[in-house]
Amino acid sequence: MSYNFKETMSKTERLAPGHRMCAGCGGTIAVRNVLRGLHEGDKAVIGNATGCLEVSTFTYPYTAWEDSYIHNAFENAGATLSGVEGAYRVLKRKGKLDETFKFITFGGDGGTYDIGFQSLSGAMERNTDMVYVCYDNGAYMNTGIQRSSATPMYADTTTTPVGSESNGKPQNRKDLAAIIAAHDIPYAAQTTFIGNFKDLHVKSEKAIYTPGAAFLNIMAPCPRGWRYNTPDIMEICRLGVETCYWPLFEVVEGRWILNYEPKKKLPIEDFLRPQGRFKHLFKKGNEYLIEEFQKEADRRWEELKFRCSRG
Amino acid sequence: MAKRDRLSGNEAIAIALRQINPDVFPAFPITPSTEIPQYFASFVANGQVDTEFIPVESEHSSMSAAIGASAAGARSLTATSSCGLAYMWEELYIAASNRLPLALALVNRALSGPININCDHSDSMGARDAGWIQIYAENNQEAYDNMVQAYRISEHKDVRLPIMICQDGFITSHAVENMELLEDGEVRSFVGEYEPENYLLNPECPMAVGPYSITDYYMEAKRNQAEGMKHVEKVVLEVAKEFEEISGREYGLFEAYRMEDAEYAVVMIGSAAGTTKDAVDALRKQGQKAGLLKIRLYRPFPAEAVAEALKGVKALAVMDRAEGYTNHGGPLGADVLSALYRARAKALAVNYIYGLGGRDVRVEDMEGVFATLKQIAEDGDTGETYRYLGIRE
């Protein structure tokens, strides 16, 4: 697919300005760029799990959404869009609707990895013709930075606080993209904000226009939860990719494809250091924690490369 | 031209749904309502309906998908029982607050625990404040007739609220009875096409559903729901009148059985009303003025009409097939007694908890209740008003 940065960025915004998301929020960047994957003229119904995005973009009586939009609850964005898509099919079949609609739902990692996991799994397994987009900021940010199953190991969150007996979250994060890929859906991919946004754009367009279920996992940093210098979001994402903490890949009809391999893989400290949630790892005597983090990142990276090598 | 048939309550509901031909039916099985989606799936498999049947992975998702479909502009529904209803609890409130007309075929079953698959009303009674219209049936015929009337009430422009069509688990859902079915065409023209005004899939005008609303608007939203509820009684009666024209069967807010001159009355919901009618008939033969008030529309509660129907009664027993754990009775008891208080009624009243988890209620049990009422009237004293029927103490 050819990609023109200027053209893509000049597309009509489908999430209007004036919403109440934080300045520099990764979630909003994810949404605006995913929606650029829609072709001009195509209509969409957007679903949304409860979270920052919902409470900040549809505060009665205002909505920032140019397309039809439905928020139902926290744990059921997958099922809700299944119902909308079912309605679309039957109205088409009965000749009550001519227009093409696409179905895209957004959830944070809380609504996706955790409380909404069952509903998501059901919608994917039924191969619902929709894209589920997780904007993964690695904690329950809306309720005030509590750990989720997407939170990386050793992150300092309000429910895994660092203390005299605690180094932050004791467990590793769940590999959700692999779990969803194991549903054998037509398209699953992992991406983030990199360079000219080509990776995110191409994957969004593919996900939206692949018939059947599609899933996008987008690392979307949260400046408040991660405690980095807000304007540095692009650098944080780049470091996530260059350290192989957040690899870019696709699973197309069961075939694993690695989209980017750093020429020189950076050490994990480079990704951890700018983030306040990992500050304690850089205290004297805690070097072994970084080593463990590195070991797990390496193990996952090798596993991913192995999957991709099999094609 | 009506057709006579022998059907279980679940089959009767499934046939009503086939005749209605709804747009979207997401479902997850749970005893004793499982047969409804099962029968319906066979209608889909054989091309007898146009419906999109979505076999979801839980009841939370079945109601979530029904809400999505209804918001999208489709006529939708689901079916469930007991823990399935409990699991979709938050969704019940969301359906109602979004003013979505959709239907739920509920087959009443006890809530766990202990886990029990048999009938009581603890499931739907717990959902009584969720903002849904609730209509209950005594038998299979009523379950079928109520389902045929459901969308006309729920979709009415003055109402636009979800509706729960309830029947008793196993007692009516699985028991086969003789009944009369309407012709498919009669049902279709009675129910009519669904023409939503605003919906997600309207290509002319996008819509946003499910806002965040804090102190500045939340209360108005709730008041708005209450406004819809206010119109329900009138619409239920209008729809019943039209239904009578095609079926010959008469429905109201409740059924007053031999209440004209009744001195002792039982107020109850559901299949045990059939048993109570036998008790009333037996007592009437003995010259006793017994009567029954069987509630059909429970939410909204037709308080004024109920009080009016009970105004000549000396003593009454409100029968609750669900506990309320208030230490003084169940939910129907609370509703009936507050209706009587507002009407300044002087009748002596007791409130029985009965039939929990499928505990059988016999004609003799109900005759015993009437005998107690007679004694209460003679003594001029109710004694303990919070009672259990048929319990081993």
Description:
- The complex is a heterodimer of chains A (311) and B (393).
- Chain A has 311 residues and is of the alpha/beta class.
- Chain A has helices spanning 5-9, 26-35, 52-57, 77-93, 109-114, 117-125, 176-181, 198-209, 223-226, 233-242, 269-272, 287-309, and strands at residues 43-48, 68-71, 101-108, 131-136, 162-163, 166-167, 187-192, 214-219, 249-252, 255-258.
- Helix content of chain A is 36%, strand content 15%.
- Chain A has an eight-stranded mixed β-sheet with strand order 2-1-3-4-8-7-9-10, with helices on both faces.
- Chain A is globular.
- The relative contact order of chain A is 0.13.
- In chain B, α7 (140-154) links the parallel β6 and β7 (163-168).
- The radius of gyration of chain B is 21 Å and the shape is globular.
- Chain B has helices at 9-20, 35-45, 59-72, 82-87, 89-97, 122-126, 140-154, 184-191, 218-230, 232-247, 272-285, 303-309, 331-342, 363-379; strands at 3-8, 24-27, 52-55, 77-80, 103-108, 133-136, 163-168, 176-181, 208-209, 254-257, 264-268, 290-295, 297-299, 315-320, 348-353, 386-388.
- In chain B, α12 (303-309) crosses α13 (331-342).
- The interface between A and B is large, with 46 and 44 residues.
- β2 (68-71) of chain A pairs parallel with β9 (208-209) of chain B.
